[in-house]
Amino acid sequence: QYKFRDLTIEELKNVSKTYPNFTFSMNTYTFKDGSQKDLLNFSGTVPVRYGNSYNIPVQLWILDSHPFAPPICFLKPTANMGISVGKHVDVHGRIYLPYLQNWSHPKSTVIGLIKEMIAKFEEELPLYSLSSSDAARQSELLSYIAKITEGETDMKSRSKIGDQNEECFNKITVVGAGDLGIACVLAVAAKGVADKVILLDLSEGAAKGGTMDLEIFALPNVEISKDFSASADSKVVILTVNFLGNAQTYLDVIQSNVDLFRGIIPAISHYSQNAVLLIASHPVEIMTYVSWKLSTFPKSRVIGVGTNLDSERFRYILTNLLKAELLAKDAWVIGEQGEDKVPSWTGDNLVADQTEGMAARNSREKVANRAMEILKGKGQRSWSVGLSVAHLTDSILKDKRKVHSVSTLAKGCCNINSEVFLSLPCILGTSGVIEMVKLEEDPLVEEKLQSSAASIHDLQQQLKL
Fold first, then answer.
1. CA separation for the pair 162, 165 (Å, rounded)
2. What is the model's pTM?
3. Peptide bond preceding 425: is omega within 30 degrees of 0, i.e. cis?
4. Starting from the edge strand earliest in sequence, which strands make up the sheet with 276-279, in order?
């Protein structure tokens, strides 16, 4: 059934000579769309030196269009091994490498793929040893991973991990232990909105920096973990991780973040199937879209922090610096983070008379422009974003039904027809976005939103999800 049988056999002979420990077999692989094929696969270990020498167990599935299509690669951890999720490995053990993304026959070969696999694993070891208690807690997840690597992709069949019943327990998880992640933990803890806060530290090695300080000073109800299972049954999961490598272009940076999220979001959604995902990673509009796609959650439960901080600052400036409290009442900053955000209103502060209404609109625009100029001088530091995140988390967990300007699916709003996330005024509650608040009609604002949507959609089309 292999279209290029001779080429495939010749190449696999070379693999067998170079890596004699690999064993070959034919098994049925089930793809994401439910289709199945009998495919050649081989399993074995690759030698990796990471301080000490390790043999990393892997399995490679050879597609029937090989060598013109890359293999599908997985780690095969034993019961006493845990998967270190990173930019090259997801929670299911699926392996993602630049070599696979750029696969091109005859330049690309399985031998070359294994060599890059070894090189990348020596930079970031993909497996770690579990203690006996950790291994027991990990057993159910490993069973699930085994099904995924065999091709089973019915996400609805996922069982709940553990026997915890935390329906009345407000638990949140912050993913990422950088400055922003720690700022979110501190702000949420200070606001007292959660009964328990898990800081999921995905970095390599022992705790250091701010994470170490959190351990030293032991905040009540805050737990630091490297294990995704610690996040189980969270009501809100806050994503703060960002790629910190040396990517060449802006698109490369975004793609690296996508690769990072590919290893995180499925694990988070597996352990907390009813959570609201709150995205603070950059660029927030695109990473919220990516999280929505990878999680398969309804759009209402995947939210970006968007321009919530800008909106709160905007209303504060209008009220306290420009003494325009009436205008501040229904004022919002919407669109996308950065220079393209725009002021808008959800109420009608203008008088009915057309002439007077035009004068009032001009006056409002002048005040709004002054406020936006002041706003430009206010940077967004980690602690300020952390306060904004705590603000949003409070509204969600306590079902406050408050309006916030957050990144939500904008399709259908302002004649936007593409699946993009933009900041718009939304009512938030325990189920995430309850309702989008209607904006005052303004052709200029609508035009700017459409322009933002078009540029974001263009970037999304170039990404490999």
1. 9
2. 0.66
3. no
4. 222-225, 196-200, 171-175, 236-239, 276-279, 302-304, 402-409, 421-429, 432-436
Q: What domains, with CATH codes, occur in the chain?
A: 5-129 (3.10.110.10), 167-348+359-464 (3.40.50.720)
Q: Could you tell me if residue 3 is left (phi over 0), alpha (psi between -120 and 50 degrees) or otherwise beta? A: alpha
3-class SS shares of the chain: helix, strand, coil, % to 5: 40, 20, 35
Buried b (16+ CB within 10 A) or exposed e, 48-80: beeeeebebbbbbbbbeebbeebbbbbbbbeee
Residues forming a β-bridge with 23: 43
Structure tokens at 367: 């005040």
**Token pair in block for residue 53:** 């020498």
* Neighbour-count burial for 423-439, b at 16+ CB within 10 Å, e otherwise: bbbbebbbebbeebeeb
In 3-state terms, what secondary structure has residue 349?
coil
In this structure, are residues 341 and 307 in contact, taking their beta carbons and an 8 Å threshold? yes
User: Pseudo-torsion of CA 103, 104, 108, 110, nearest 10°?
Assistant: 60
Token pair listed for 75: 């780690």
pLDDT tens sequence across 146-184: 544 444 433 333 333 343 444 458 999 999 988 899 999
Structure token pair of residue 401: 């039904």
Angle at 308 between CA 195 and CA 360, to 5 degrees: 140
Q: Which of 146-150, 247-251, 291-295 has the highest average model confidence (pLDDT)? A: 291-295
Which residues have CB under 8 Å from 172's CB, separation 6+?
A: 188, 193, 194, 196, 197, 198, 234, 235, 236, 237, 238, 393, 397
Token pair, residue 120, equals 């990348």
Amino acid symbol at 367:
V
CA distances from 207 to 128, 189, 438 (A): 16, 20, 46
Separation CA 203–CA 224 (nearest Å): 12
3-state SS assignment for residue 121: helix
